[in-house]
């Protein structure tokens, strides 16, 4: 089950036979990597060093200069970053890919839609409490991630600098699904929050079922509506990410439903994007809401009578804050973050592993892979001054390259993705042109 070390020997072999090789040749192993006894590769679960404290700097003094400006155009001190490129951050979408593997295996289409909906919600869960800004990718920067134990591989590329556009393409190692999208992180500062314009489309194709789903991505401030559309029929799932509301009562809440082509609600989906998602049939949900309302009225009256009644005994022991309707099915629950997460940018275990340069990788990754970015590497290792210097150098190098191109009338051309039309939405999209995993890296730009 080791593949990084074997890539070289497969160079020039078609993708199909590469997949076969993956399945059959599990005997060869990379000497350098760590394996668990069951042969599954163990990825690192922490960063080399804890993060640099931000407390010494007045965040507000810097932020107030930025009100109303587009975040991508602001040069912020590196201390507000987290040591990941935006290309790596969007790869965190893949953390709960088991939900897609589950969807592939389900014979019932509504059940599949539930799993896809849970996946779409779970994808934003890793953002929770992550205040560090990922590094803007350089034009031509790439990132790849292969996880045999989760059955996928992914490649992404920064295809445009102004506006910044990141395109990614992930595929099942056994041909079950293709998952791709292009993301435009248009962010604005409005005093106390970062506002995001959800742009770009996410497409998921379940190949065996001949189904395609699309939705748009929410970024950072998770509120608004996401519609997941099954393009074969026009059936859809509507998910409403609620704004915080009065006294934070609605904080992190997501509620929605799946409707069939006759617009009949088949099921209700609810929960919190920071915790868990449940599904239940609409009748049970409505019944529960009604009884809850009655209960609330009764309780209020009782409280008025009893004066300061102490309700503390009724509080559940666990920190679960989603009220579960009887008869619900759990779709997804978040994994708890490791204890050291608080000193490591609130990263999840998955995020901790993303910038790891495993032994043997160096010879195999494209030279444009963000694991080779010296600024991110320096920051990860706690060398903040080096990180800052390197970041400036890279940005300067990018500016100089752009100037050169404009002088010579040379256009930038993307390498692994092309500007095309999404076949399901009919909208402009960046689509994978293939070949990355053949590992022919000639003519890649020197961006570091
Ligand atoms: C999606 O489309 C497929 C193919 O037409 C259909 O069989 C299925 O019922 C739809 N699924 C959902 C959840 O609407
Ligand atoms: C991590 O989360 C805590 C709240 O749980 C928050 O106060 C802190 O600012 C977060 N740190 C980062 C680096 O995002
Ligand atoms: C992509 O193609 C569309 C037309 O299909 C065009 O409007 C758009 O400018 C192109 N974008 C880039 C970055 O080439």
TrEMBL record:
UniProt keywords, alphabetically: Lipid transport, Lipid-binding, Transport
GO CC, alphabetical: cytosol; perinuclear endoplasmic reticulum; plasma membrane
Region Disordered, residue ranges: 288-316, 381-407
Record-level Gene Ontology MF annotations: cholesterol binding
GO biological process entries: lipid transport
Biased composition range(s): Basic and acidic residues: 288-304
Gene3D superfamilies named among the record's database cross-references: 2.40.160.120, 3.30.70.3490
Entries under InterPro entries matching the protein: OSBP_sf, Oxysterol-bd, Oxysterol-bd_CS
Similarity field: Belongs to the OSBP family.
Protein name: Oxysterol-binding protein
